[in-house]
Design brief:
- By secondary structure, the chain is of the alpha+beta class.
- It folds into two domains: 7-182 and 320-413, Aminopeptidase (3-Layer(aba) Sandwich), CATH 3.40.630.10; 187-318, 2-Layer Sandwich (Alpha-Beta Plaits).
- The chain is 34% helix and 26% strand.
- A six-stranded mixed β-sheet has the order 1-2-6-3-7-18, with helices on both faces.
- Strand 4 (93-95) and strand 5 (98-100) form a beta hairpin.
- The protein is globular and about 65 Å long.
Length: 416
């Protein structure tokens, strides 16, 4: 099965394009992709809500009324300080099969492998649309990227099978070779808490209660008894792993899959030396399982902050979503992972962070975080690379990943 493009060469070309966000400047990567699509005769649209903040949406396959396949990635990357790197972060240096550069694993390798599968599929007898989507601004909230694309393509993408970042990493468990696959994202309820008080010296007792109130609230949030709430993801996770999970990441995932949680985002208690702060403010997020609405979040907050002098306000609420892990698309992904990466099974989890998939999962799409890498980079190794110096991914991961996604398209979108 020949590739229409050299996916590794395309990948290295993309890494060499500095799309650090801020400022973004994704236009240079979109220009590169436009040239490729023009070369292969693929139709596309450029979405540009702000100058230089471009995303690109390309399509192959007929409009048949069947749910589409949507391959998504983002083109922006976090900034890099060249002085900290062993190799220049935008040179895509290859050393012993490892390719180094900012954005290699977040997420230009996914862009390249999706592009390879997409261009290969253009000559197949497809029974539904297949979209390639590469967006701007994911690293800064997606306001200039997927937020706009998802709205514009709401009808076209509805109910689709979406491949996204966030999974594809090997985790150890006995003799099994398990690859993580995110099958949903927890909801995010962002809360601003304000504590009013009066300033005073720290060297002797006073009526200042700001610090006491702050520490009491931290204690309340840390000890809040979130109940276990089983769901399709947590049940499948437990079915695969059974009892006696040894790996600390897997133990943490088990709890994350079945409980809500408080996450402290930022706080401000002043900066004066030897002075008790007059007030304090901090921001937390409630990470909520599927099925929790804003009223449920308010009930949790009422319970935690009851009888506290602090004031709280919900500043943003984004619902959770969960994807189908019993259907043909998920099974096809699992078969392809076994064929090309030797994975025993896919291990479903909820994504640890927010991705562009949230704009589609809450619109009825089934979003799977699966950007596979070889076992040369285990999950712990991925965490050490993302947004860090010397970010890298293996050549084999890019090549094999393109084959996995090609197999997925064949299994779900080829033929009558």
């Amino acid at each position: 099965m020949s590739e229409p493009i050299d996916v590794v060469a395309v990948f290295r070309d993309l890494v060499r394009l500095d799309t650090s966000n801020p400022p973004g400047n994704e236009v240079i990567a979109v220009s590169y992709l436009r040239d490729l699509f023009d070369r292969f005769g693929v139709s596309y649209e450029v979405v540009e809500p702000e100058p230089t903040r471009q995303s690109i949406v390309a399509r192959i396959g007929p409009e048949t009324g069947r749910e589409p396949i949507v391959l998504i990635s983002h083109l922006d990357v976090v900034p890099a300080n060249p002085a900290e790197w062993d190799y220049p972060p935008f040179d895509a240096v290859e050393d012993a099969g490892e390719i180094y550069g900012r954005g290699t694993i977040d997420t230009k390798y996914l862009t390249a492998m999706e592009l390879g599968a997409f261009l290969q599929a253009r000559t197949w007898n497809l029974n539904r649309p297949v979209y390639f989507v590469a967006t701007a601004d994911e690293e800064q909230g997606s306001t200039h990227g997927m937020a706009v694309v998802a709205e514009r393509y709401a009808d076209a993408f509805r109910g689709g099978i979406v491949i996204n970042e966030g999974g594809g990493f090997f985790v150890p468990h006995g003799t099994e070779r398990l690859q993580l696959c995110t099958a949903g994202e927890k909801g995010r309820c962002t809360v601003r808490i304000t504590i009013d008080g009066s300033a005073g010296p720290a060297s002797f007792p006073s009526d200042n209660r700001t610090v006491a109130t702050l520490t009491d609230l931290f204690r309340r949030m840390a000890s809040h008894p979130f109940p276990v709430e089983e769901n399709a993801v947590s049940r499948r996770f437990d079915e695969i792993l059974g009892d006696g999970i040894e790996d600390p990441f897997l133990r943490a995932f088990r709890e994350y899959n079945r409980r809500d949680a408080f996450i402290l985002r930022q706080y401000d208690v002043g900066s004066q030396i030897n002075v008790l702060p007059a007030g304090a403010a901090f921001e937390v997020q409630l990470h909520l399982l599927p099925g929790r609405d804003r009223a449920a979040a308010e009930g949790i907050l009422d319970a935690v902050f009851r009888d506290s002098p602090a004031r709280w306000e919900i500043t943003d609420f984004r619902p959770a979503f969960i994807s189908d892990i019993a259907g043909e698309a998920y099974r096809a992904l699992e078969r392809a992972a076994a064929t090309h990466f030797g994975a025993t099974r896919l291990l479903p989890v909820f994504a640890l962070g927010q991705t562009d998939g949230r704009f589609l999962g809450t619109r009825g799409c089934h979003v799977y975080g699966f950007a596979p890498v070889t076992d040369a980079i285990p999950f712990s190794g991925v965490l050490e690379r993302v947004h860090q110096k010397n970010e890298s991914v293996t050549r084999d991961s890019v090549e094999l990943g393109a084959r996995v996604l090609g197999d997925l398209i064949q299994a779900t979108a080829q033929g009558e």
